[in-house]
Amino acid sequence: MTATLSPGDSTNSNPKSRIESRLAQRRALLSSVLSAYATHILAYALINLTTTIGAAHLRRHLMLYRVFLPRWLLGSAVMLVAEVAGMIIGVGGVAWSVGAVGKVFGW
Predict the structure, then answer these.
(1) Cα separation, 95 vs 84, whole angstroms
(2) How far is CA 38 from the centre of its chain?
(3) What digits encode the pLDDT tens for the residues 30-44?
(4) Which of 4, 81, 93, 105 lies 20 to 30 Å from 56 when distance is taken between CA atoms?
(5) Average pLDDT for residues 62-67, to the nearest whole number?
(6) How far apart are alpha carbons 51 and 45 in whole angstroms?
(7) Does residue 45 contact residue 72 with C-beta atoms inside 8 Å?
């Protein structure tokens, strides 16, 4: 004879193990957000790196300071703004929302 499980019965009926599994899910979510954020920053860093390599290759060209330097400075500023905004909005927002949901459901 097979026993049936009611909705309250589960293999994870221990509250401590449920909390640990929720914490593991939270860590996995934050890890995936951080890896996506790192990939995004890497794209901006690659743009700055190629600009720097191009400027080093054409260092004797007269238009170096008129063309490449403003592009490099703007790329650096955009990368800095993207890093700060991504850290505050992306990573902080996910951590805050997961924490708020966890507080409601008692994780």
Answers:
(1) 16
(2) 6
(3) 888 888 888 988 988
(4) 81
(5) 73
(6) 10
(7) no
